[in-house]
Specification:
Number of domains: 2
Distance between the termini: 32 Å
Bound molecules: pyridoxal-5'-phosphate
CATH class of the largest domain: Alpha Beta
Strand order of the largest sheet: 4-12-11-10-7-5-6
């Protein structure tokens, strides 16, 4: 089928949840994707931070083929070779010794919320009323299932599905006094992204994260870091929290974990683990042998190829190229990010720019309406960064952002 017939077929049979770009991808190699007509695209988005080793990495293909020959699924009623192996690796890089596997980011958030509530109940068992409330941040994004949606601080995602899970309050982003005020005796957990991803590549301040740590530590409640986007090497360290010198009680991971296969996890402190006992939580698919074997190969490859150093080095270079663009183009308000998690805040909505970049063979996306987001593979080279920056430079030079009036007319 060609692009036009796929578009037509989809529109007849799919529930319309996606507003896709009109591109039909057929294969990938390194940091490039190829469409049905053989046209090449430089990928600065990696399937939203998933394909951290790009496409067709030999170590991933080896692990995939080997495990596919042996065993795809057994359920969590039985043992297989790879959950402990992968959990050991995750524990070593995070300092958090206990792991539960899921299929996705949003399910990792669900598991983290349930574990925090179960832990509060365990502690409150001696007559006290258990703490139950979760503090989350405004402008956050934690996923689309009902629990994750309830802690997502953006009206556009929440409102169509109200009423959501009760027992959640939102704290203003980086506002220490708001956090202090809302952190009362009902709170069992504080949930935050050290760097908000979907919310526009916004970094927490050291003061705010330290305060969240201090308040939860003192009350023996739970600090949850959502590192589904920022974790596993994206920022040039294994986890963004490691830039801050703060150790959370639970960390959620997913996106790049199994190099393109669906896999997520929560990593937790020892004392939290006993709040779950057999039967309290579980999943049919989560932590299957194929995804876990490939994830182990992913973590080994990041280590063997010393990609954390590389993410830092190329990330700094990319950021400096974007800052040069900022000096030149008044439509760039700010450049933000760490490692290869970068954002360019524009003065106007960036949707048309993303479309024009795609037509020039460059893949990026625009989040939060006005923030161009870059999440390239960890293997991206300086030369590819130059190519992307040059395309962006040319596009920005002749970019005429839509005015409010034009937008209204179009709508
Ligand atoms: C993508 C993302 C999620 C949701 O993950 P899914 O796998 O899409 O369910 C949650 N939190 C953050 C920070 C994310 O970037």
């Amino acid at each position: 089928m060609n692009l036009a017939s796929v578009v037509r077929a989809e529109s007849a049979v799919l529930i319309p949840t996606y507003d896709r770009h009109r591109v039909l991808f057929r294969r990938g190699r390194g940091c490039y994707l190829f469409d049905a007509r053989g046209r090449r695209y430089l990928d600065m988005l990696s399937g939203i931070g998933v394909n951290a080793l790009g496409y067709g990495h030999p170590a991933i293909l080896r692990a995939l083929h080997k495990q596919a020959d042996h065993l795809l699924h057994v359920s969590n009623l039985f043992f297989h070779d790879y959950q402990a192996l992968l959990a050991q690796k995750l524990a070593r890089i995070s300092g958090l010794p206990r792991v539960f596997f899921t299929n996705s980011g949003t399910e990792a958030i669900e598991a983290a919320l349930k574990l925090a509530r179960a832990y509060a109940r365990l502690r409150g068992a001696n007559g006290r009323r258990p703490r139950y409330r979760v503090l989350a941040l405004e402008n956050s994004f934690h996923g689309r299932t009902f629990g994750a949606l309830a802690v997502t601080g953006q009206a556009k995602y929440r409102e169509p599905f109200a009423p959501l899970m009760p027992g959640v309050r939102f704290v203003r982003f980086n506002d220490c006094s708001d956090l202090r005020r809302k952190f009362d005796g009902s709170v069992c957990a504080v949930l935050l992204e050290p760097i908000q991803g979907e919310g526009g590549i916004r970094l927490l301040t050291r003061e705010f994260l330290s305060l969240a740590r201090k308040l939860t530590e003192r009350s023996n409640t739970v600090l949850i870091a959502d590192e589904i986007q920022s974790g596993l090497g994206r920022t040039g360290r294994w986890f963004a929290f490691q830039h801050y010198g703060v150790q959370p009680d639970i960390v959620t991971v997913a996106k790049p974990l199994a190099a393109g296969l669906p896999l997520g996890a929560i990593l937790a402190r020892e004392r939290l683990a006993r709040a779950f006992s057999p039967g309290l939580h579980g999943t049919t698919f989560g932590g299957g042998p194929l995804a876990c074997a490939v994830a182990a190969a992913f973590l080994e490859t990041v280590e063997n190829e010393q990609l954390l150093e590389r993410v830092r080095e190329v990330g700094n270079y990319f950021k400096s190229r974007l800052e040069k663009l900022q000096q030149k183009h008044a439509v760039i308000r700010e450049v933000r990010g760490l490692g290869l998690m970068l954002g360019v805040e524009l003065t106007h909505p960036g949707k048309t720019l993303v479309r024009q970049a795609l037509a020039q063979g460059l893949i990026l996306n625009c989040t939060h309406d006005t923030v161009l987001r870059f999440l390239p593979p960890y293997l991206v080279t300086r030369k590819q960064v130059d190519q992307a920056s040059d395309i962006l430079d040319r596009l920005l030079t002749r970019w005429r952002p839509e005015t409010k009036k034009q937008r209204r007319l179009r709508a």
